[in-house]
Design goal:
By secondary structure, this protein is α/β, with parallel strands linked by helices. It has 4 domains: 175 residues, MoaB/Mog-like domain (Molybdenum Cofactor Biosythetic Enzyme, Chain A); 55 residues, Alpha-Beta Complex (Molybdopterin biosynthesis moea protein, domain 2); 91 residues, Molybdopterin biosynthesis moea protein, domain 3 (Molybdopterin biosynthesis moeA protein, domain 3, Beta Complex); 77 residues, MoeA, C-terminal, domain IV (Beta-clip). Helices cover 20% and strands 30% of the residues. It has a 6-stranded mixed sheet with strand order 7-4-6-5-9-8. Helix 1 runs parallel beside helix 7 and helix 5 crosses helix 6. The longest helix has 20 residues. The two termini are 40 Å apart. The protein binds adenosine monophosphate and magnesium ion.
Amino acid sequence: MFASDCCDDHDRLLTLAEALERALALIEALPEIESVNLQDADGRVLAADLPARLDVPPHDNSAMDGFALHHADLCSDGPTRLPVIGQALAGHPYVKTVPRGAAVRITTGAMTPAGPDLVIMQEHCRIDPEQHWIEIDAAHAAKLKLGENIRRCGEDVHAGALLLPGGRRLRPQDVALAAGQGMATLTVRRRLRVAVASTGDELHEPGVPLPPGAIYESNRYTLLGLLRRLGCAVTDLGILRDERDSLLSALRDAAARHDVLLTSGGVSVGTADLIKEVIAELGTIEFWRLAVKPGKPVTLGRIGDCQVLGLPGNPVSVMVSFLLFARPVLLRRMGIASVEPLRVPARADFHLRRKPGRREWLRARLRLDPAQGLLATVYPTASSGALSSLCWAEGLVELAEDCAGIAPGDGVQYLPFGELGVD
Ligand code: AMP
Ligand code: MG
């Protein structure tokens, strides 16, 4: 029996749900806020609920290029001919009232003048070549409704209503909505300062020849990219050696200057696995080891005000434990309200037998089968060192703790990478 498995039957490991509940209860959103220009607001976290201050649209306007007229002028027993007495263009309103028995040419987005109560599309009228009059046939006139093709003041947004909820990570369309309110700046949370370090004496930077027994370091590239996609301000601490004193000083120093510290490697039970010990000496360990696969040795601790997430060293474990465990913790610290990814129901296109007990994620892809709907395929090897499997994958299949196996056609939960911030 391996040492790392020896405690399974005695100490029950925390489930992911239990670990996240504990972690999220401990962690508060960064209190600092700042004002950013709209140009810089994409991806930032809105600090508080934002009420609308204007009606949008701010005035009734035309949804079509056509003619504004009075519904009551439409004839049912013959063509309706109306003189065109002027024009309303977008940004150039027709300022007078349009009397009964007359029409005004109008373009999309132009304010509707006082008087008319519908807009007819220009394709639906016969237009005098000189544009002095329009004619609408009776059959078409009968189909026109009051208010047709008029976008009403406030129909998109009402002044005073909730425009955007606090805790939202702003997307381009959210920033555009704020622009539509005339807001030039938004109040957002300060960026989360996160430091990343890899640990291991076997690790070397790419670009130099490898000595015997060494490997190139890769986990930092996974973590730096994932953190940048979350909008964090990231510090790369490089590779740390498996040496107690240098780990102590590196972690102490990094914790003093960051909100969160992420390490990879050195959290298992080998003699060179010093991260837990070092965190415990500088601060506290909240928990270590979860009932998950891959990523079991994941550690959550704290040094001063800095959360420390000790992720496993295996390249697959590091990414999976980041996505499922570290990510929700970081989102909470960033002040993001919703941290749960959406799981897509799919059918298994694979066969698997397993021992229940841990929640497991398989590297997967989804395809649409005309008869069976969404089918999930998984990568043939389960090795947590096989980084190429993650490059093949487009998401993860999640197996619940009590799952004893999967047969083709069984329902499974699929987590698209896009839902986890990897796209
Ligand atoms: P550890 O958790 O430190 O025992 O590492 C587990 C496995 O992952 C070992 O095979 C390590 O060589 C490998 N590993 C750890 N850190 C990295 C890294 N940053 N890049 C690539 N492989 C790593
Ligand atoms: Mg190591």
